[in-house]
Structure formats: C-alpha cells, structure tokens
Amino acid sequence: MVMEGADRARELEVFSTIARTGSFSAAGRALGLTPSAVSRTIDRIEARLGVRLLIRTTRALTLTAEGQAYLGAARRILADLDEAERVIADQGAPRGRLRVSAAFSHGRLCIVPLLGDFAHRYPHILIDISLTDTVVDVAAGQADVAIRFGPLADSALTARRLGETGRSVVASPAYLQRHGTPRVPEDLLQHNCLNFNFRRAEPVWPFRREGRDYALAVTGTIEANSGETLGQLAADGVGIARVGNFGVVDELASGRLVPLLEDFNPGDVEPIHAVFVGGANMPARVRVFVDYLAERLR
C-alpha cells in the first residue's frame, strides 16, 4: 500500500524525535503521542523497509547502521520541508526579520524617517537596520538589503535604482563674510576645505571649466568619514565642504549654507541602488521593502 505523503513525513518526524530524545516515551511527550503509538510507527517503518532501525533494551535505545542512514535521510527531508514552507510563507504575507544596511548619513537622513510608515504597513516584518559606512557583503548573508552609492561592481546580486544625488561645494554666510567668497576653484587654495578621510575618498575636488573637467587638490584642518559631519561643520562656519546634496537639503533651504562655484560644478551624479539577492525565492519582505524605497525615494 502506498502511504500518503503526510503520513510518511509524520513517520520521519517520529523517528527523528526518538533519535533526539533517546526513548519512545520522551518522543511521545514531545509529539503528543502515546508510547504505544510511537512503537507502532517504528514497527510499521521497519516492516516496510525489511530492516531493523533500532535496537531496544530495557536500558538503552541504539540505532543500527541502517537506522543511522535512515536518520540522516529523515533529517535532510524534514529540513527541506521546513525550508519549502518558509519560502512559500515568505512569498505570501511578508514577515520575518529584514536586515538593512545603509551608509550612516544617508540612512539617518533618508532611510530611517521612512521606517515608521513601512512598519505600520507591514507589522509582521521586523526591521533590523545597521548604519555603517563599511560595505557589507550581501552575497555572504551579512544583510538582506544594502543601499549603495556610485557605480556597482559586477556581481550576482540584483540592484534596483532608487534615485541619484549630486554634489555641491557649500559654506556658511558667516564663513564667507570672514574669509571672502571664492569666485573660481583656484580661490579654494586660500580657504579651509573640509575633506573626507576614508581611503576611497578622492584626494581632490572635481570641477569643469569651458567643457573641460579637471581636479583641484585642496587642504583643510578637519577630515571626517561622514558627509553629514562635514556639512554640519560647514554650517557652523568652520570651512568649505563638498558634500552630497541629500545631506544638506535643510541647510540650503534655510540659508545656513549657500552653494559655491556652481558655474564650475562638473555635474557628477551618484546613482543610489538597493542591492539584494534576487531570484524566484526572494523573500516577500525584501521585495516589498525595495518596492517601498523605490516609491518613496524617487
């Protein structure tokens, strides 16, 4: 007689639980079965296979070689069933932990303010966000979604464009009143220019004159790893900074910062992407979060 799949899976669960707990009675308690029901299940498996899987004595329960092989197969099959159910559940109602990695400044200013509304829309998703300027390895499972700036390296990951940001040279009116306003890029050589300190930062600021791009090396008294920090220092009158526009929107709107040398701005624009592991088995929580960011950030 061919058994139903659910019955066969139940047998595997019973056998695996016996091996884990070490007795029929303990397995029965774990599964809500009587010891006699557990015993009948093992008898049925052994009769169907024609081999002994367990050696039972009054003192101990031992797996035979066939029992060890059957246990390995049972555990693999049960794990596959659990994984299949998890994947199907994820593709249905979005739920589970969603690990998000974002650069500190952009995350604090642009991503974090959206999380409350997203959590209200999807209350079964647990948002686990890390703000760091370190590039995490999404392919290795360090995050489910990472927000990246600039050109992307070739990889097996999927990328969804969320928008773009330009850069501007900015200073406070108070600083300019004390030190004068630069009219051409070369005037910056006489000013306190605030720079990034991480290795991937360009040691020069790019400009464009009469259609030709060129770079100017600038120096200053403070370096930082955050555009938000540099923008704050510039707004406080410490010096001149070249930062992403997203980080100084409020300061520019309020007049605490003013743009400089706009006629020489090279128009360099950095694309912003959400990077994640795509494919048919992509969890619904990842899909809805990326869709949400694309909707709100454009």
From TrEMBL:
Q: Keyword Transcription on this protein?
A: yes
- Check the record and name the SUPFAM superfamilies matching this protein: Periplasmic binding protein-like II, Winged helix' DNA-binding domain
Q: Which domain of life is it from?
A: Bacteria
InterPro entries in alphabetical order: LysR-type_TF_proteobact-type (IPR058163), LysR_HTH_N (IPR000847), LysR_subst-bd (IPR005119), WH-like_DNA-bd_sf (IPR036388), WH_DNA-bd_sf (IPR036390)
| Biological process (GO), any one | DNA-templated transcription
Q: Where is the HTH lysR-type domain?
A: 7-64
Q: Name one Pfam family in it.
A: HTH_1
Q: Which UniProt keywords apply?
A: DNA-binding, Transcription, Transcription regulation
The protein's GO terms of the molecular function aspect are:
DNA-binding transcription factor activity; sequence-specific DNA binding
Transcription among the record's keywords? yes
The protein's matches in PANTHER family, at most eight in alphabetical order, are given as:
HTH-TYPE TRANSCRIPTIONAL REGULATOR, TRANSCRIPTIONAL REGULATORY PROTEIN
Similarity-based family: Belongs to the LysR transcriptional regulatory family.
Q: What is this protein called?
A: Transcriptional regulator
Q: What is the lineage of its organism?
A: Bacteria, Pseudomonadati, Pseudomonadota, Alphaproteobacteria, Hyphomicrobiales
